[in-house]
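Hey team,

Filing this mostly as a record. A colleague (T.K.) asked me to run one chain through the structure pipeline before their review meeting, and I want the input and output archived in the tracker in case anyone asks later how it was produced. No errors, nothing strange. Just documentation.

Input sequence:
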Amino acid sequence: MTSNSKQNLWLTVVAIVILAGIAWVSLRTTGEPSDDQQAPANDAKSASVLSPSLFTDEKTRAAYQVAKDIPEVLEQLPCFCGCMMNMGHKNNLFCFKDQHGSACDICQDIALDARKLHDQGLPIAQIQENIRAKYARYQP
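Output structure:
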């Protein structure tokens, strides 16, 4: 092998190693956002809730605001209006991701009661217990 071919071979190997390193770094960094790129969990959850400003009714607006403010609480509460069985909702927070919550007093009342209990400092287990005790009778 001539010295020129050896030099070309080494240049090719070095280029491949550099390109592989660049590909590895770019794939590794695009897979997961860095800490400064990640939105807090509540921001992501509340972003999927409809804006309270879309509604003119004061109670409806307040319930949607609760969903924006404490989505981590509503996501741990069942809804007893039947939407979990009939509409595929997974919890009370889902009621405020669409307009369902605007037409359902039970959904709104659960959210508003959850806010009061949360503001009193009750742990989620007690909030769940209180909500079940008050609303389970409405479940179809």
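Quick notes for T.K.: Confidence is low (pLDDT under 50) at residues 29-40. The radius of gyration is 26 Å.
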